[in-house]
Design brief:
alpha/beta; seven-stranded parallel sheet; globular; disordered N terminus; disordered C terminus
């Protein structure tokens, strides 16, 4: 789709209050007199955490969301109707809802799941709304823009591809009886729960087309944030869409890699922070970053992470407290980000790496 047409549709979307105005790009990145244009890529709760933080520091925010989910309500809708899995898109929209009564109400409504003995059991209201609009409009991006307008979302949500994707992984020791053998595991849900060691992930189809608006957003951004999130099933898949990866390589935006608070049981069990960096480089060796952000308490060996980030990504490491109380470190329970702390960390990065003076 031509860039002019993309911009016209973006302007027509209306509802997402993209507050920043386009300004003059400075020599060190960003635009003088404007909020930073930020694109966040990922899926699931990791992307939701990033968006909840980022919307506090910029009004010009775009989420690019993975579409390989095949479990739960999304998987059922995908199997029955042949649509994109709407669940991660719904979560991103909910994260962009405002803190006022309108935003809180709609965030709760679209996240509400039916509890019944029938076919509606465990379906999320937002999933049904998104799919209904897709069928009505025949336009993935236009429908998501309309949902964003209804919700008063503080940003825009885009799928990374308009084609439903399947995730495949090469897993060492998937069969406990054969711990030294590689097996092929198919499906995001299966990959996330595998008991073996994930060595590589692939998408089916292998060369899916990117959504043009997502490519345009990355190329036009001041900052691109990848992660946090399920590393093999929510973060790396973006790098397996050729047009999107090329945009990430070509963009003049600064790039931030946001690491998880802890390894994910199954998918990245036992992974160190630097191992996360290594497997990302394995899947996208030409992609560089400016900053790797990690929670200070989640990095037992800061020197090794700094070395891996510098050698493999060309990036500086920023260690900051971004976990909610009790949300990082060994034995801390379910790790989660603190929105205010994560927002403060992103804000400092945006100010100190490529911007003179405050955004606001």
């Amino acid at each position: 789709m031509p860039r002019k047409a993309i911009r016209q549709r973006r302007a027509a979307a209306g509802g997402a209050p993209l507050l920043g105005r386009r300004g003059v790009r400075t020599a060190r990145g960003g635009r003088r007199g404007a909020q930073p244009k930020v694109v966040a890529l990922g899926g699931g709760m990791g992307l939701s955490a990033s968006l909840t933080a980022l919307r506090r520091i910029t009004g010009d925010l775009t989420a690019v969301v993975t579409v390989a989910d095949d479990g739960g309500s999304s998987g059922r809708l995908r199997d029955e109707l042949g649509v994109l899995p709407p669940g991660d898109l719904r979560k991103a929209l909910a994260a962009l809802c405002g803190d006022d009564e309108w935003g809180r109400t709609w965030s709760e409504v679209i996240q509400h799941r039916f509890q019944s003995e029938g076919a509606l059991h465990d379906h999320a209201v937002g999933n049904l709304l998104i799919v209904a609009l897709w069928e009505q409009l025949g336009d993935h991006v236009g429908a998501l823009d309309l949902v964003g307008k209804l919700l008063g979302a503080h940003g825009r949500v885009l799928p990374m591809s308009a084609v439903p994707l399947a995730l495949e992984a090469s897993v060492l020791g998937h069969d406990p009886a054969h711990p030294d053998e590689l097996a092929r595991v198919r499906g995001q849900a299966a990959v996330a729960l595998t008991t073996g060691e994930v060595r590589e992930v692939m998408l089916v189809p292998h060369d899916p087309p990117a959504v043009p608006e997502a490519v345009e957003a990355v190329l036009d951004a001041d900052w691109v944030v990848l992660g946090p999130g399920s590393w093999f099933s929510s973060v790396i898949p973006h790098l397996l869409v050729p047009e999107l990866l090329q945009a990430l390589v070509d963009t003049k935006a600064r790039r931030v890699l946001s690491l998880n608070l802890a390894p994910q049981p199954g998918e990245t069990d036992g992974f160190s922070p630097q191992r996360h960096v290594e497997v990302l480089v394995q899947h996208a060796p030409k992609l560089a970053f400016d900053v790797v952000l990690a929670d200070r308490a989640a990095v037992p060996d800061g020197e090794s992470l700094s070395q891996a980030a510098a050698e493999r990504l060309g990036a500086d490491v920023v260690l900051a407290p971004v976990a909610a109380s009790g949300g990082s470190g060994a034995g801390a329970g379910s790790p989660r980000h603190d929105p205010e702390l994560l927002a403060a960390a992103y804000d400092r990065i945006f100010r100190m790496h490529g911007r003179i003076g405050p955004w606001r």
